[in-house]
Backbone:
């Protein structure tokens, strides 16, 4: 259920409405907006009697939500969510957020060399894997806590915000100590205990689309996180599994406008995992910006041939710098024309 407050509703009236929701055993999610505040109600099994709320002071209307998601929708919050990590690092504010770095943190030298270029190119976010979900148990699975420490040093030295993946609850505890944003990878998009755990985190969450997930399943995964009270979520399209053999995954760029039509959450495009081939990364990154993505994720390595993971889809430092200037030019055109 959704309670829409009047434009003139006072804080006391909003607080009182929350109290009534909670007294019935439900959870109230207060979403302030530019013109009015809405309160999403979750925790109810079945229909709630709307008359509990309709006559409360400051309430404009109470609406039954028939869609499967209640919190991630534009019905609850017509204004777009801006995920703000501080120091000008924002996703969803109309700027183009660049989240770049190596697939895995391999050592301090490698990570710092990439971070230097990422910073120089104007990015505000640095990504690097500490805990790697690998298809084979014999592949390099990340340096764990040592990688987190390197990432924290990069944050201190370059002022970049750190995005890194957590594979389980214990990883989340560590990532919360060292990083700025928790990535939930494609393989864990439907790990509901993990989604609930990051839903209780204070850090924003980057939620990748599962490799065989429908749009609805992906948005419901975001709904899991929001239902726990964490409203700072960025969706990431990273390609889905199809019969195509010329790419690692098929990057579903139509997902970007599809998400934006339903949800207030920002959505970015991962052109690295979405293609798996470095020569395709820049063209698909350009396309991602053109379809309205709020940002891009790409993998960058000083020597892609020697990378311990995902070298085939990693850009060299030079390729990365060139890509950034190209996507920025496209973003300028798109935003100047008011298409975003
Ligand atoms: C990654 O970002 O390095 C990663 C493992 O991505 P995905 O979960 O999309 O495969
Ligand atoms: Mn990778």
Residues:
């Amino acid at each position: 259920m959704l309670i829409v407050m009047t434009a003139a509703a006072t804080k006391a009236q909003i607080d009182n409405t929350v109290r009534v929701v909670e007294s019935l055993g439900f959870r109230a999610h207060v979403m302030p907006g530019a013109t009015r505040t809405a309160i999403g109600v979750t925790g109810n099994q079945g229909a709630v009697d709307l008359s509990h709320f309709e006559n409360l002071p400051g309430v404009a209307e109470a609406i039954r939500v028939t869609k499967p998601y209640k919190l991630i929708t534009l019905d609850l919050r017509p204004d777009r969510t801006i995920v703000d990590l501080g120091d000008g690092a924002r996703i969803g504010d109309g700027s183009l957020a660049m989240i770049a770095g190596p697939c895995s943190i391999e050592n301090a030298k490698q990570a710092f060399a990439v971070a230097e270029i990422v910073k120089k190119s104007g990015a505000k976010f640095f990504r690097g894997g500490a805990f790697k979900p690998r298809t084979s148990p014999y592949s390099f699975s990340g340096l764990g806590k040592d990688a987190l420490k390197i990432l924290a040093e990069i944050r201190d030295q370059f002022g970049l915000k750190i995005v890194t993946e957590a594979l389980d609850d214990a990883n989340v505890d560590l990532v919360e100590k060292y990083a700025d944003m928790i990535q939930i990878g494609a393989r864990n998009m439907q790990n509901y205990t993990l989604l609930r755990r990051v839903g209780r985190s204070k850090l924003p969450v980057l939620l990748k689309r599962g490799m065989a997930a429908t749009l609805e399943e992906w948005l419901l995964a975001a709904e899991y996180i929001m239902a726990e009270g964490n409203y700072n979520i960025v969706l990431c399209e990273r390609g889905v599994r199809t019969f195509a053999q010329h790419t690692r995954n098929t990057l579903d760029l139509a997902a970007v406008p599809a998400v934006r039509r339903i949800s207030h959450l920002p959505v970015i495009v991962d052109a690295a995992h979405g293609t798996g081939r470095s020569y395709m990364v820049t063209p698909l990154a350009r396309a991602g910006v053109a379809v309205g993505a709020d940002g891009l994720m790409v993998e960058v390595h000083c020597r892609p041939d020697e990378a311990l993971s995902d070298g085939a889809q990693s850009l060299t430092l030079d390729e990365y710098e060139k890509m950034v200037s190209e996507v920025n030019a496209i973003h300028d055109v798109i935003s100047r024309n008011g298409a975003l």
User: Anything to note?
Assistant: The mean pLDDT is 97. The chain is about 35% helix and 20% strand. The chain has two domains: 2-63, 83-336. Residues 317-336 form the longest helix (20 residues).
